[in-house]
Amino acid sequence: MTKHDRWMLFTVLLPLAACATAPKPAPAPPPPALTETDATFIEKAARSNDFIIATAKLAATQARNPHVKDFAARLVSDHTASQDRLKAIADRHGTTLPDDLNTDEEHVLHSLKAEKGRAFDRDFTALQIAGHNDAAPLFQAEAASGSDPALKTYATDMQAAIQSHLDMARTLGQHGHHRRPHH
């Protein structure tokens, strides 16, 4: 190695050595702890998403009406995306989403698994109407008075999807009472 090569190597390595000894920037401070209201919202929203996803997945094999199957597929897609977004917010706060259904939800899911065809379509649709009716005020309250900005934005953004799902379920419920001819 010539003197010139060593000099070039030294000029390349010197800035790297300086970077290695430079103090690292302080890590970003953790977000403030969630208020009890925000933590309760996260738990209820996560459970709602999980329950809707679980019931909607049943429709692939248990529903008769293709519109119910399509609606259920949209619910799985939309609520999975919602849950992923909620999980990201919870993770930033060091909070873990619940990963189980409550006892009442387990019983309803078990009952729904036993149904097929028109009975499934009717009960699934009624369940989605009730579930989305229950979710709407939860999300409205968080959007209006939540403490965490990311949760408020999430709740605000989700209100349109909740209303859309509720409208679709109501439409299916109205049309589900008419008998269709067998093909």
UniProtKB/TrEMBL annotation:
Keywords: Signal. Transmembrane segments: none annotated. The keyword Lyase does not apply. It holds the Pfam family DUF4142. Residues 1-28 form the signal peptide. Residues 37-172 form the DUF4142 domain. PANTHER family: BLR2558 PROTEIN. This is DUF4142 domain-containing protein.
